[in-house]
Amino acid sequence: MKKDIIIAGGGAAGAMAAWFAVEKGFDVSLVEMKERGQYHPCSGVYPLHSLRGFPPLPDSVFERDMVTMRVMSPTNDALIDAREFKTTLGKIILRSRFDNYMIDVAEKKGAEIRDRTRITKIEVKPDQVSVHVKDSNDAESIISGDILFLATGTSGLHFHDQLGIEKPHLVQTVIGEFECTEDHIEHALSSGAYHYYVNKKITGIGPFWITCRKDTFNAGIIDYKVTKERFVEAMQKDPRVKSLFAGSKEKVWPGQKSAYTTTLIPCAPIKTPYSNRLLVLGDAAGLAQAFYYEGVWEARESAKYAVDTITRLREEHKAPTADNLADYKKSLARNLVNKFLRSGRKNSWLFWQAQPDETLWYYFCDAMQKNKDLRALIVKCFEADYATSDVDLDFKAGELIFQSIPMLRKVLYAPHFLKAGSIK
Ligand SMILES: Cc1cc2nc3c(=O)[nH]c(=O)nc-3n(C[C@H](O)[C@H](O)[C@H](O)COP(=O)(O)OP(=O)(O)OC[C@H]3O[C@@H](n4cnc5c(N)ncnc54)[C@H](O)[C@@H]3O)c2cc1C
Q1: Is the minimum distance from the CB of 175 to ligand 1 under 6 angstroms?
Q2: Which of 226, 237, 240, 335 has a C-alpha 20 to 30 A away from that of 282?
Q3: Which DSSP letter does residue 209 get?
Q4: Which residue stretches of 218-269 are H helix?
Q5: How many A from CA of 282 to the centre of ligand 1?
Q6: How far is the CA of 59 from the centre of ligand 1 (A)?
Q7: What is the rounded distance in angstroms from the CA atom of residue 398 to the CA atom of residue 384?
Q8: Which DSSP state fits 154?
Q9: Considering the chain, what is the average pLDDT of its residues?
Q10: Is the CB of 33 inside a 6 Å radius of any atom of ligand 1?
Q11: What number of CA atoms fall less than 13 Å from residue 384's CA on the CB side?
């Protein structure tokens, strides 16, 4: 039986695509190599804006409200508490639970879910796509369909070679899982704060983070090259960071071999996320930014635009040729790449790549401590839809941070802010 859509990968992008596609009446088969509910390395930050434009999710898929964010530099520290503005920053998710919920919904609505099934080969032919799979009993079969959604994240990049498409640029990350008491989360971890610690001696590209779940938290680093040993060393180096781990224990979730996972995060979108009978979704298309590092929302957004694109083709009786699928790239550019991901690139440059130390991040923390308007603006950034907002939040925040820099130093840093477009 030929399917309308074959979805390779049942992570955030694939699961959401299956859900949306069956709702539009497509005959869908989703293939995922893992068992449902297995650990998926992800910190779990799910900002408020990510909830908009998707079907509501029950409270049971969320670990906790994210109400605080602590930003730290080697010599500075500030806390944003969204309760100061009677709101939250978003939610925290555990991916095994979150993805599982989406897969279950898609299945109930009629999608065929083949989990514990590994894709071994993908062929795109002029008249169909063929996906070769091997299930948990090593039984091999071929699924054929009209179009393929490639949503295999960063763990299926060999398919890019097989299909002759560009791979996204990547950085490495180590994530460690820990258990602790709620009391530790409340007091040592500032009411479940999402800690964002920027220190060039520790990482070369992204933050050192801590994100609290329920009775557990995860921590990690992002860099061009990371190791578990470097991460453990980073945990011990700064007494303030070390104290955040005091009394906690390593935790191993179902599907994990150890409490530490080394994996990859994309840092730039690929140029052509489509070809004949093929759309590339989520991390496989490079739709995340290492400095902001959230990618679950981008993955789910890409699922929405992929399904919208092929729904339009069906209505217009058009074939899924590369030319006809090119609208998908335009939707990604308009809604993700040109605004939100660009903001990530700009801020990554300004606070990270532009200077040899973390002075500008120090001033960011400083301004955050002292200026309620900046805190309000940062809280707004978690809620804003960058694609539709007329307000340039980065520019407004940039101005407030720049104001906090001592007069003599302003001369030194003005070119950076000007280049990032954060002041005029
Ligand atoms: C350490 C870390 C921390 C992160 N923190 C955050 C965060 O706080 N917030 C946030 O929003 N994002 C975060 N991200 C990014 C986020 O996890 C990804 O952007 C998101 O998972 C992308 O979804 P996806 O569906 O494209 O890929 P994935 O979720 O990776 O899904 C791909 C799926 O394809 C399956 N697959 C691969 N190969 C095959 C095959 N051969 N056969 C069958 N199935 C296959 C995999 O098993 C996987 O389930 C983090 C990422 C990492 C690594």
Answers
A1: yes
A2: 226
A3: E
A4: 228-237, 239-245
A5: 8
A6: 22
A7: 16
A8: G
A9: 94
A10: yes
A11: 18
What is the per-residue DSSP string for 5-59? EEEE--SHHHHHHHHHHHHTT--EEEE-SSPTT-------EEEGGGGTTS----G
Q: Which domains does the chain have, with CATH numbers?
A: 3-38+96-169+268-338 (3.50.50.60), 45-95+170-265 (3.50.50.60), 341-419 (no CATH)
Check residue 98 and give its pLDDT: 97
φ and ψ of 270, to 5 deg: -75, 160
Q: What is the CA radius of gyration of the chain?
A: 22
The count of C-alpha atoms lying within 13 angstroms of the C-alpha of 369, restricted to the half-sphere facing its C-beta, is 12
pTM score: 0.96
pLDDT of 135 reads 96
Measured CA distances, 363 to 76, 198, 294, 421, 423 (Å): 9, 12, 24, 17, 15
Is the pLDDT at 335 greater than 80? The verdict is: yes
Ligand 1 neighbourhood includes 295 CB (under 6 angstroms): yes
The single-letter code of the amino acid at 292 is Y
Q: How many CA atoms lie within 13 A of 368 on its CB side?
A: 21
Nearest to 201 by CA among 230, 174, 178: 230
DSSP lists the bridge partners of residue 319 as none
**pLDDT for 348-365, tens place per residue?**
889 888 888 899 999 999
Question: At residue 270, what is the residue type?
Answer: I
CA dihedral over 47, 48, 52, 58, signed as positive or negative: positive
Please calculate the CA angle 61-7-46 and round it to the nearest 5 degrees.
30
**299 C-alpha to ligand 1 centroid (Å):** 9
Q: Which residues of 332-368 are buried (b: 16+ CB within 10 A; e: fewer)?
A: beebbbebbbebbbbbbebbbeebeebbbbbbbbbbb
**Segment holding 220, helix H or strand E:** strand 216-223
- Only one residue has tokens 């169909």, namely 128
Residue 368 near residue 80, CB atoms below 8 Å: yes
Q: Report how far residue 380's alpha carbon sits from residue 396's, in angstroms, rounded to the nearest whole number.
A: 11
Q: 209: which 2 tokens?
A: 């983070």
At 59-70, the pLDDT tens digits run 999 999 999 999
Q: Which residues contact 36 (CB under 8 A, 6 or more apart)?
A: 100, 103, 104, 115
Residue 80's DSSP bridge partners are 69
Q: Which of 95, 296, 297, 298 to mutate to test the pocket of ligand 1 (most atoms within 8 A of CB)?
A: 296
